[in-house]
Amino acid sequence: xxxxxKIVTITSRKGGVGKTAITSLLARxxxxxxxxxxLVVDFDARGGISSLLHDKPINSEHxxxxxxxxVAKQQGNVQDAYDQAVxxxxxxxxxxxxxxxxRLYLLPAKPALDSVLPDMDPSLLKTLLYDLDLTDxxxxxxxxxxxxKCVVMGTGAADVxxxxxxxxxxxxxxxxxxxxxxxxxxxxxxxxxxxGMIVNQIxxxxxxxxxxxxxxxxxxxxxxxxxLMSATDSLFIKLGQSRLIxxxxxxxxxxxxxxxVSARAMAxxxxxxxxx
Length: 276
Ligand SMILES: Nc1ncnc2c1ncn2[C@@H]1O[C@H](COP(=O)(O)OP(=O)(O)O)[C@@H](O)[C@H]1O
Ligand SMILES: [Mg+2]
Description:
The protein is of the alpha/beta class. Helix content is 43%, strand content 16%. It has one domain: Rossmann fold (3-Layer(aba) Sandwich).
């Protein structure tokens, strides 16, 4: 029997930590290195990943995730709505792109998402994606916004979750709050296995290592009563700073070995999670 596509969510209640940048990194990895079909779901009304992956603005007539969710809510034809909304997008335009058979698809977002989400059943995104019936020649990546409903619905749909953070005091609280959401989804039988905490824009200094050690202690306290399900034993995956990421350019693997290492670690976590 063919398996369904794995759903990987990149989320945090903190803005600006690299959710969108990491989604684009994973999109390129799975498309190019693994030759997968990758569906990127923009689950942020601000449409960050939509503007990274699609070179034209999403105009107001184009169907987006918001309209597809509305069709799902009204139990209409989701497949039809999806077919109208999805965009095959242009990795072949990036530098040094190597065609290994992979393809990249975008389910874009528009500002309307903000106004439809409050009335949505939190499990609707998961139902919608399951109904599309994509098989495991696909990987589905969900890039969430930082607000509560985006994080909750994105995590609820996930087989695997990545939680990016910066080593900054401001990140501790929203990071813990996001971990609590992941934890609560795991408990109610959602998969939502933690693929890793992505320590973004990290350098090589001792204080950064000390900071990670503090997070490890914090996580131990957090897991005092029951254990968080994680994909691998190494919960922290480091991602360095890159001008190419800042510019929103897809990375050139041949030149940026460091980023390939990070992407490989994330992909290994995704592969380690079995679909139930
Ligand atoms: N590793 C990185 N190196 C350089 N710039 C980065 C890196 N990660 C993120 N950025 C930049 O930081 C900003 C915020 O990142 P973004 O991915 O949009 O965060 P989020 O989606 O969590 O709000 C963007 O301009 C992005 O290009
Ligand atoms: Mg973003």
